[in-house]
Amino acid sequence: MKYLLIFTVFSFCSVVHVSDALAAGITRAVMLSNSCAACHGTDGKSPGAIPAIHGKSSQFISQSLREFREGKRPATVMGRHASGYTDEEIQLIADYFSGQR
Amino acid sequence: MKNYSRRKFVKLLGGTGALLSASSLLTGCGKAASARIVIVGGGFGGSTCAKYLRRFDSSLDITLIEPSSRFITCPFSNMVISGMQTMDSISHDYAAQADRGVNVVHARVQEVDATAKKVTLDNGKALEYDRLVLSPGIDFKWDEVEGMQASDAEIIPHAWQGGSQTILLRKQLMAMSDGGVVIVAPPKNPFRCPPGPYERISLIAHYLKQHKPKSKILVLDAKDKFSKQTLFRQGWEKLYPGMIEWVAGSKGGSIEEIDVATGTLYTEFGDTHKGDVVNFIPPQKAGAIAQHAGLANNDGWCFVDQRTFESKVHKDVYVIGDASIAGAMPKSGFAANSQGKVCAAAIVSSLRGVAMPEPSYVNTCYSLVSPDYGISVAAVYRHSEDKGIYKTGGGVSPIDADATYRSQEARYARGWYDSVTMDTFG
C-alpha cells in the first residue's frame, strides 16, 4: 500500500509538472519569439515604425525570414537577425506569431 | 497544488520514509502557486522580467521595487541632450505593471539577506522572497578617478543615467557660446551602451552645426577602438567635417586627472585639455545594491549562470541587465529586456521543477548619427555550457549603404524605441 501511494504521488506530481509547463506556456517557440518583441512589440504588435507581425500567415513569416537570411529579400537589419536562426527555429517563430491575434 | 491536498497526501501516506520523500516531492511541485518574487530595479531588465513573469504565471506574487515613480531611459537621452526630443518622451511610469497586478513599491533596497531570503527597504519595511531578481543597472568607480567625486557630477555631468544629469548636460550645451569646445570622455570597457558615447558625440555635433557652427568636439577616449567605429567615423566626416577630433587612449586620450573647478583634463601623456562643456563618463561597475549584497567580483560585475541568470554567489538570487556578466551580450537596455524574459522563464521553470527550453537572446543597438542617419549593430545569441552566451548571427550596417538605407534605419531606431518601451513598460 505504501509503495502504491508513493507511486501515486510520483504520477500526480509529473501530471502537475506537465500541465504547469503548458499553463506557463514556456516552450522553445516562446523563448525564441519573445526575442522578437523588443523590436516588433509584445506578441508582435508593434506600436510604431517597425512592422507588426502578429496574425500574419506562418507561410509568409517563414518565407520572409528565409529570404532575409539568404539575402533574397531587401532588408536593413533583418538579414542580420535571420542569420542567427535555423530553418526549424524560423518555423517555430512563424507558427507562434501566426497564432497571435 | 494547494496546501490542503499536500496535507491530505501526507496524512494518507503515514509511514515516515514515505513521508520524507513525498513531502519533498510535493514541496517541489506545490510551490509555484504562491511564490513570492521580489524584483529590485524598474528599468529595462526588472520591468520586463516582472511583465513576463506575470505572463508566464498569473498566480505569482510579484513585487517590483524602484525608487522613481517615472523611469527615464538612457536610450534616446542623447536626443534630449541635442534638443531633438523632450524629457517627457523618454519617461515611463509603472501604471501598466500595477494594472497587471504587480505590486510596485517606490523605495530603495538597503539590505539583501540571501540566507534569510529577505530584503530590507529604506522605508523600514522588510520583504521575504522565494526568488530575488536584481536589475540595478550601473554605478560609477569614482575611486578610480583622480580629482573628481560623485557630487562633482553636478558640475561635470556624466549623463550616463537618465534624469537630472541629462537635463544638466543639455543646459550646459545651450549656455555655451559659439566657438566653444565640448570634451566628451568615454570610459574603458566594459560599460553601459557601447555605442552610446559616439551617438552622443554625433548628436551634439548635429546641435552645434545648427546653432554654434564654430564649435568643436574633442573626444578623449580611454579606449583604442569603439563600437561601430568605421560607421560612426564615416558619418562624422560626411555630416560634420572638421568638427570632431577623436583621440585614442594609447595616443593621449586616456585621462589621468580632472580639475573640476576649471573643467581641465590632464592626460596620461601630460597634455592639458580645457573644455567649455565637459562630459566625462566615468568607469563603471554593477549598481550599488549588487556590490552591497556581495554579488559582484573584484572588477565590480556579477557572475551568473548565463542560462538562467541565477547568481554564482547566492542561490535563488538572479542578476540581469548591465550588472551581470552575460557572455557575448553587451550592456544595453535591449540586452536587459532580452535577459529579463529568459530570467522570468528560468524562475517559473525552477519553481515548477520543470526544465526550461533552450534560451534565445538578442540585441540590437541603433544609433543616430543625425536625425535622418541611423546605423545599427544586431546579434542573436544562444547558450552552451562551455561557451556561456555566444553569438550565432548578426552584424553591423553596411559601410556602403546609401542615404535611403541610413534614413530607413533612423526611422527604425524610433520604431525600436516605441516597441521596446512598450514591451518593457507597457
Brief overview:
Chain A is mostly helical and 101 residues long.
Q: Assign the structural class of chain A, choosing from mainly alpha, mainly beta, alpha/beta, alpha+beta, or little secondary structure.
A: mainly alpha
The major pleated sheet of chain A works out as: none
Per CATH, the architecture of the domain at 142-280 in chain B is 3-Layer(bba) Sandwich
Largest interface: A-B, 43 and 65 residues
Q: Gap between N and C termini of chain A, in Å?
A: 50 Å
Major pleated sheet of chain B: 5 strands, parallel
- Ranges of chain B where pLDDT stays below 50 over 5 or more residues in a row are 1-32
Which structural class do you get from the secondary structure elements of chain B?
Answer: alpha/beta
Number of strands of chain B: 24
CATH superfamily of the domain at 142-280 in chain B: FAD/NAD(P)-binding domain
What is the mean predicted local confidence, pLDDT of chain A? 85
General shape of chain A = globular
What is the helix fraction of residues of chain B, given as a range? Answer: 25-40%
Domains of chain A (count): 1
Number of helices of chain A: 5
The oligomerization state is heterodimer
Distance between the termini of chain B: 31 Å
Q: CATH superfamily membership of chain A, which one?
A: Cytochrome c-like domain
Radius of gyration of chain A: 19 Å
